[in-house]
Structure formats: C-alpha cells, structure tokens
Amino acid sequence: MGDVVNLKRFKKRGEREQAAKQAEANRALFGRTKSERARDEFLGERSERVLDQHRIESGDAS
C-alpha angle with apex 27: 21 to 29, nearest 5 degrees? Predict the structure, then answer.
C-alpha cells in the first residue's frame, strides 16, 4: 500500500514552493540597491549630456 498523505499539508507545501519561486523572480527583477539605481540614473544623464554636447546645430532651418 501507499503512504498516507495529508492533503492540507501537501497543498500548503506546494503553495510555499510556488511563493518561493515567485519571490526569486521578484528579487531578480526588482532587487537592486539604492546605490545601483542612483548609479544607473547618473550614467544615463551623463550619456545624454555628452550626446547633447556633440550635437551639430545648423542655423539653417529649411
């Protein structure tokens, strides 16, 4: 005969495993520190400034 399984415990274990997988995915997507976000923002602004400095603007509008 097979082992007796408590269905409530089985269901709870499955839900916990699913929650752990979701938490892992969320950490990968949103798990950046404040300093990492600030650094990325700074680098983005810096690259925009560098591009704007090298823009060639002509006085001819036509």
Answer: 105
